[in-house]
Amino acid sequence: MTRENSSKHSKDHDIPDKQRALVLQGGGALGAYEAGVLGVLCKKLAEENDVRRDELLFDIVAGTSIGAMNAAIFVSQFLETRNWNKAAEKLQKFWLDQLAVKDMDISEISKPWYDHWKKRDEPATTASPEEARRYFSVERLLLDQVGNNMYYLSENLMDKRFFDNLYQENGPNTDNCDCKDPNCKKPNFVNNFWPVHSTKPLQESIEKYANLPISTDYKDNQPRLLIFSVDVAEGVTVTFDSYPKAGGLRKSAYGKFNKIVIDYNQGIEIEHVMASGTVPEFYKYAKVPIHTKDKQANEDSTSNQKKVNENNKEIRYFFDGGWLSNTPFRELLTAHQDYWKNKTNEGKIPDLDVYIVNVNPSKYGGDKLREDHDGVKERANDIIYSDRTSHYDEKMAHLITTYANLCNKLKKLVKDKKNEVVDKELEKLLATEIDNGDDIIPRTYGDLLSNAFNLSVVMRVERAGYVNNISNKTGDLTFETINKLINEGRCDACFTIIEKSINDLKRDDDEKKKLIDELNLAWQNLRDKDYEDNNSQTFYKLTEFIKKIKNEKKLVMFTNELLSIIN
Asked: Which of 70, 230, 266, 317 has minimal Cβ neighbours within 10 Å of its Cβ?
């Protein structure tokens, strides 16, 4: 792939032949992994494609949940510096300097584990010291014992619908045997309290690194930012777009016949970014005004601000976009098509290269599954939030394009025969409107042909680390873990780029397979050691690997970069 293919424009110097998109998955603290991946990806794509400092390395940056927050910071920093590498460095600083919690003491809360670990009573099941550090660190954070810049416990709400958080009975009882007070109460251990957290620290953290609102435009050579959230009442994914629509306004229209419209002509606001990452139950619903002029910050539930009327028609309620689409690949393709089909470009839609960063592993990387409670929860979370649809969507996109190409060839074949009767029938058929569901914009069979585009490249960098993982890993904000996640992202990005480069080589398939197998042995060895190459086995395997690719300059360069990260 060359930069010429990536940015080359058509004869009218307006419509590109191809664009490049980045998709960032949601996953809480695992977003630090994305920052590590981008640090490598930006550098490598720029070198590979000879991108000048101010050119668009990514034409589109799309994200859900923490991926949306990373995307907003990444795009904002590029707009400020016009330098992709600096934008990636700034994103890493956001995680290391702003969100990471340093010097957390877990000695008291982890004592029961430590007593067992010291005795090695159950060596087969007792967590490792690193795993315990992560587990109990998250417990301290969730218990609000340690402050952080992502959230805080704002209130414990009593249940006012079923009232099952009241005490059960008065007087001495089995739970209060020593109580002499006749008013002693037996606790209700159902404990239906709702611990509600505030997003205020995270919002303030993002605003330190992202200049919002973000409004961009293709004609100004600016990247497009796409952010996805879930409208709670409608139960649909909503796209917030930094590019203006065909009429020149920025807005999101959805629901039956697109009757629900949220306008934000000044650009994507902090409310839209926060709505994408408002985890249900952990937070209250995010409130997004349908008009920019009505904008008001999501109020902290403990504040004395005037409450918004629950039936206010000017407010829509949102929560985390990951609940419907944690890897918003399909939404990206739809947004790409919708934008260009409305341009004056004879229906041409640019082809697309897509780079996806997944923080939730689709497959388990170890030899033996964990069967303890925390292990079962962790694997369930991975499967729920992993990339479950993009592979299918990719196949369908290729299939649709193949059918469109076939139909266009048949159309040309008919035209070449110069049969006026057939030509008229064909034009009539292509102009026939098709059933378009709830979409109020009429479409024809001809539109299906002209709106097709090629997915030239789809590359996925997916986190596969499994050693010392815990079920609440998305909440581990400790500096040690954040730093390790960034390093994991850098390593996995290098491995993925090297693997793709091998597949692109003009070599025999068997030879390429042998090289990939050797590379994967080194990769697996690093994962098995939790990305700590203390015994230098991975380093040795990679140095041997370099000897076999010594004539492939780019491959050697990427592998040496990986070696420098490991060391």
From this structure: 266
Residues with Cβ < 8 Å from 7, sequence gap 6 or more?
16, 18, 55, 56
Q: Hey, what are 466's tokens? A: 């499994």
Written as six digits, the tokens of 366 are 């170890």
* Range with lowest mean pLDDT among 101-105, 172-176, 184-188, 389-393: 172-176
Q: Do β-strands 251-254 and 260-263 pair in parallel, antiparallel, or remain unpaired?
A: antiparallel
Handedness of CA 213, 197, 324, 372 (dihedral sign): positive
pLDDT of residue 247: 86
The closest alpha carbon to 167, from 158, 156, 155, belongs to 158
State how far Cα 198 lies from the chain centre.
22
Q: In angstroms, rounded to a whole number, what is the distance separating the alpha carbons of residues 45 and 53?
A: 12
Residue 444 CA to residue 139 CA, distance in Å, equals 56
- Find, among 467, 482, 415, the residue nearest to 148 by Cα: 482
Task: Say which residue the tokens 């995680």 belong to.
Answer: 95
Residue 169 has pLDDT above 60, yes or no: no
CB atoms within 10 A of CB 21: 24
Q: What is d(CA 287, CA 278) in angstroms, rounded to the nearest whole number?
A: 10
Q: What is the mean pLDDT of residues 458-480?
A: 95
Give the three-class secondary structure for 98. helix
* Backbone angles phi and psi of 223, in degrees to 5: -70, 155
Return phi, psi of residue 165, to 5°: -115, 15
Separation between Cα atoms, residue 444 and residue 431, nearest integer Å: 5
Mean pLDDT, residues 451-467: 92
Q: Which residue type does 139 have?
A: E
> Are the C-beta atoms of residues 186 and 173 closer than 8 Å to each other?
yes
- Which position has the token pair 């790409």? 336
CA–CA separation, 464 vs 488, rounded Å?
9
Among 21, 5, 455, 7, smallest CA distance to 224 is for 21
Question: Could you tell me if 15 and 350 are in contact, meaning their C-beta atoms sit under 8 angstroms apart?
Answer: yes
Segment (H or E) for 20: strand 18-24
Query: What's residue 310's pLDDT?
Result: 46
SS3 556: helix
Residue 480, number of CB atoms within 10 A of its CB: 17
Q: Is 157 exposed, middle or buried (0-12, 13-18, 19+ CB in 10 A)?
A: middle
pLDDT in tens, 55-70: 799 999 999 999 999 9
The pLDDT confidence band at residue 366, using thresholds 50, 70 and 90, is: confident
Question: Is residue 186 within 8 Å of 168, Cβ to Cβ?
Answer: yes
Helical segments of 196-295, H only: 200-209, 270-276
Contact criterion met (CB below 8 Å) for 140 and 106: yes
Q: DSSP code of 60?
A: E
| Helix, strand, coil fractions of the chain, as percent rounded to 5 | 45, 15, 40
Question: Tell me, what's the pLDDT at 187?
Answer: 55
CB atoms within 10 A of CB 238: 25
